[in-house]
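Please fill in the sequence for the structure shown.

STRUCTURE ENCODING:
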């Protein structure tokens, strides 16, 4: 299957959907050059190049999770899917992060899942099993997170009333506790204080050090976090205006995986170094992770249909994982600005019922 065929099929399927609120015309959907696709009857395989594996996780070339979900639920609904990838060096951090992401996707939609539609070949599965250092160190209980620094990147407060002129760090500082718009997320999502830069870099050993980091970006942090109702923990992946990569899905999925393992005791969080950071000791006893895509605008393929497929898959994963009873619910919210220059948030209705975490996958409606 060539690039033009994939793009034509995506556009055709997208034309059959109603335009999202605020969008006036159909987008020019593009397939990434570094992901090749083959089809044999009703099985479609994504072939990840080394360049795609090493790409920034938020780039369209790297986000295999998003493209798989788009092809399955928008274009080729009756097909099964797989991923093929070249062998990598065991110490390569990009390769290790890819293996962890692939392992999570396999656990959500692979052979052990409810109504599975994703399958890895035996050779790919062996590579995943033997090369993934995360699983090795997790079983040895030797995983720790990095140190969070709440003051990292702090600058002057930008009081502009033009959303286009706010950088992501500036948006973070306005939304977090003591910021000029500190109540914006608190009121919308009924949370406690909003904290920025929650550490999700993963290391093995007794102390975080660049030499024992498992993944690139050893200083990786979730943009914004907060305690929520019903023993929940909110994590927000924030993007500024005009930054609309589909890779936001990969980023938030990866952060959910790490935070879920922190709550389950599989990763030992490292204590923060200042008061502006969330204290990870408060994660003890959390029962729900609310993961929110937060931005003024999104990639047109980050649809509610896709988000609800993730929610249904995590319901089933919770039932199968005897070591972790944490629920995961994904959300989507649009960040805007009122006439007074204050940030505001419009929450997209979630078809998943948050009042219960015992729903079956079939009870989660798809728009």
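FILLED IN BY: designer on duty
SEQUENCE:
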């Amino acid at each position: 299957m060539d690039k033009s065929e994939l793009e034509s099929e995506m556009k055709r399927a997208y034309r059959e959907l109603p335009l999202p609120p605020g969008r006036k015309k159909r987008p020019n959907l593009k397939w990434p050059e570094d992901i090749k696709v083959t089809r044999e009857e009703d099985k479609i395989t994504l072939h990840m190049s080394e360049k795609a594996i090493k790409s920034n996780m938020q780039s369209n070339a790297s986000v295999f999770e998003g493209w798989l979900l788009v092809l399955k639920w928008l274009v080729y609904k009756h097909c099964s899917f797989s991923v093929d990838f070249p062998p990598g060096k065991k110490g390569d951090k990009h390769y290790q992060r890819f293996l962890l992401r692939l392992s999570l996707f396999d656990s959500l939609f692979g052979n052990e899942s409810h109504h599975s539609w994703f399958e890895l070949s035996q050779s790919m599965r062996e590579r995943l099993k033997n090369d993934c250092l995360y699983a090795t160190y997790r079983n040895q209980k030797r995983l720790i997170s990095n140190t969070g620094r709440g003051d990292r990147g702090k600058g002057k407060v930008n009081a502009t009333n033009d959303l286009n002129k706010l950088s992501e760090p500036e948006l973070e500082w306005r939304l977090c506790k003591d910021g000029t718009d500190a109540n914006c997320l608190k009121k919308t999502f009924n949370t406690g204080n909003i904290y920025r830069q929650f550490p999700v870099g993963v290391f093995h050993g007794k102390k975080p050090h660049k030499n024992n980091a498992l993944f690139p970006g050893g200083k990786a942090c979730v943009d914004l976090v907060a305690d929520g109702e019903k023993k929940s923990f909110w994590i927000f992946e924030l993007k500024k205006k005009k930054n609309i990569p589909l890779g936001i899905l990969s980023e938030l999925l990866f952060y959910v995986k790490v935070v879920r393992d922190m709550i389950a005791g599989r990763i030992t969080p490292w204590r923060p170094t200042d008061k502006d950071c969330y204290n990870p000791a408060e994660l003890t006893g959390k029962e729900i992770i609310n993961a929110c895509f937060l931005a003024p605008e999104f990639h047109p393929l980050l649809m509610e249909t896709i988000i609800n497929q993730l929610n249904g898959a995590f319901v089933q994963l919770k039932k199968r994982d005897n070591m972790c009873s944490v629920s995961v619910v994904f959300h989507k919210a649009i960040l805007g600005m009122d006439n007074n220059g204050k940030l505001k948030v419009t929450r997209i209705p979630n078809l998943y019922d948050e009042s219960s975490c015992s729903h079956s996958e079939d009870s989660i409606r798809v728009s």
